Amino acid sequence: MEMNSPHEKAVQAIMYGHRCALRLKVRLDDPMADNGSVSTYDLAKSIVSCFSDAISILSDKPKSEDDQFSDLSSRDSSPPPTPQRNQSKKRKINHSGTNSSENWRDDSPAPIYYDGFLWRKYGQKSIKKSVHQRSYYRCSYNIDHDCGARKHEQKIKDNPPVYRTTYFGHHTCKTTHNQDHLFTAVQDQVDDLESARMIRFGEDLVQDKESHTRGFSLSAKHEEDTIKEETMDQCRVITGDDQDCQHVMEENQSSPSGSYTPPSSSGSESVMCDSDLLVDNLASWDFYNQFDLDCARFFS
DNA sequence: TATATTTGACCGAT
DNA sequence: ATCGGTCAAATATA
């Protein structure tokens, strides 16, 4: 099963947000039950971002479904990375001296926090034409799998913010190992917390995830943190107030934004893939809904 | 201590 | 000489 249609992406975004919301609720119900590795603010921000994503995807349907995503992937053997989770405009670019079929540009209102691949930052430069610096990333499997994929990311516009990510080369690494660690990891955290609660309701959704023994870091998270600090700095200049910055940033946020720090995992031997995640989620979706109703009744 | 990021140096292209 | 991309030592982080 492929995870390509906008509908499926929207469903995933909503499910991700739902998991974050569940965790937030768990924490609000019983602050001691949570290990506190993720701040309440970050959880809330993730929830807002996920719904923004879903809304963006669904409201974009009339024009983008046919000509942008499907068309480009079917025409080219090296499509942009999937799953794509931000509202963005993808464009093939011509770059003299390189194979243009392997280069992609992606503009989005927020830094891409997860594009299906793991990246390692290897440089950052001031660019003549822009006040914003450009960050350089290469595939985290650059050495392990001799993967030559790279990307640049740069904020190219303020108000509304536009972040341009340009992809170069194609991934020769095993993408099933590269993709979906974030979702897997996030789901692990939420599942752990949910398991504890669901037992109270006589249910047992504990699943063998194997992921807590793995260790990896998400460049995208740090990438986002950098941008976040830059944005905060800009806000401070204007408002001189950190709380205002938080509000402004929250309103401008339109992607899950990496605020949710996943647990460590080495990822290199993960076998979790799209279909696993989707089936798993769909299987528990009805239960989650019922669980919400039960909780609402129980705590009201 | 291992791994990732930061940041000035280096280098090729123009 | 300047610019943009990459390297790699220093630094940060878990």
From TrEMBL:
Its main location: nucleus. GO terms for molecular function: DNA-binding transcription factor activity; sequence-specific DNA binding. Residues 108-176 form the WRKY domain. PANTHER family: WRKY TRANSCRIPTION FACTOR 21-RELATED. This is WRKY domain-containing protein. Residues 61-105 are annotated as: Disordered. The keyword Protease does not apply. It comes from the Eukaryota. The keyword Lyase does not apply. PROSITE patterns: WRKY (PS50811). One of its GO terms (cellular component) is nucleus. Gene3D superfamilies: WRKY domain. It is found in: Nucleus. InterPro entries: WRKY_dom, WRKY_dom_sf, WRKY_plant. SMART domains: WRKY. Keywords: DNA-binding, Nucleus, Transcription, Transcription regulation. It comes from Microthlaspi erraticum.
